[in-house]
Amino acid sequence: MSNSSTRATPRVRKTKHIAFKPVDDGIRPADAIQAQIRGMISSRTLKAGDRLPSERDLAEQFSVSRNSVRQALRSLTDSGLLDVKKGASGGAFIRDGGGDAVRAGLGDLYSLGTIQPTHLTEARLLIGVEIVRLACERRTDEELEELEANVRAAKAAVQAGDVKRRTQVNLEFYQVLARMTHNPLLEIITDAVLAMTQRFVEEFMRTTDATVMPFRYKLLADLKAQDADAAAEKMREHLLRLQKIYLAEATARSRPRSRPARTSAPR
């Protein structure tokens, strides 16, 4: 789900002249600052590309220390809402809408073991089937051409024996499908799931092309015909097959290796 899709850089606006309210006593300053900035983003008072006032100006408006402002800006940056740039033209900018925080958060849960391979493959199955159904209904001709180009790139990687490139292109296939839904939430969720899937594949195993490429060609035909039921069934069968392969490998890896039996020393 790392994100390999390219996002356009948001248009940088001038510093917003906004009157923030002083922080009330009894509330942690950094939390209160975050709440006000989040509220202005939610109300569209602050938009992607807007630059916040300087750290000193923010401290004066909120009636807090500059250290409290730094803590708040750092937390908002970690959450994916701000992009802090250095230099004369730098500052704290409202980020364009993206799912970096979601991908990072779910990736951390995967690293910690909260999200197990069973959870990952199950979620991928449920999401993938519904995404391809929507993709059939909403895709444009240009998006279909993009998916066909992806399949050609995968075939070229297979012929070149470039396993790493093949894996990357194969995962991008699902990102293109998610974009066909024209639903940004599904795109973000798909990116997060694929980022975890890529880590799993690199750690445990890579599947062969015996069934992957034929599946892609058949799915393309259904997408061209906009046959949502047929495409959804093919995706379900394909992801169930991958789930079985991945979980079998994960189970095998998790088993403790048996030690060879000790032989008695000759007496």
From TrEMBL:
Residues 27-97 form the HTH gntR-type domain. Keywords: Coiled coil, DNA-binding, Transcription, Transcription regulation. Residues 137-164 form a coiled coil. Transmembrane segments: none annotated. GO terms for molecular function: DNA binding; DNA-binding transcription factor activity. It holds the Pfam family GntR. This is GntR family transcriptional regulator. It comes from Candidimonas nitroreducens.
